[in-house]
Amino acid sequence: VQALVFDGRVVRLREWPKPTPQPGEALVRVLYAGICNTDQEIMRGYSGFRGVLGHEFVGMVEDSPQSEQVGRRVVGEINAYCGECVNCLSGLPTHCSQRTVLGIRGRDGAFAEYLSLPAINLHFVPESIEDKAAVFTEPLAAALEITDQVHIRPSDRVLVLGAGKLGSLVALVMHLVGCDLCVVDRNGRNLAWLAERGIPASLTPPEGSLADVVVDCTGNPSGFQTARSLVRPRGTLVLKSTYHGMLEVNLSQLVVDEVTLVGSRCGPFPASLRLLERDLVEVLPLIDRLYPLSDGSAAMDYASEKGVRKVLLEITEN
Amino acid sequence: VQALVFDGRVVRLREWPKPTPQPGEALVRVLYAGICNTDQEIMRGYSGFRGVLGHEFVGMVEDSPQSEQVGRRVVGEINAYCGECVNCLSGLPTHCSQRTVLGIRGRDGAFAEYLSLPAINLHFVPESIEDKAAVFTEPLAAALEITDQVHIRPSDRVLVLGAGKLGSLVALVMHLVGCDLCVVDRNGRNLAWLAERGIPASLTPPEGSLADVVVDCTGNPSGFQTARSLVRPRGTLVLKSTYHGMLEVNLSQLVVDEVTLVGSRCGPFPASLRLLERDLVEVLPLIDRLYPLSDGSAAMDYASEKGVRKVLLEITEN
Question: Most buried of the four, A265, A289, B130, B238, by CB within 10 Å?
Answer without folding.
Answer: B238
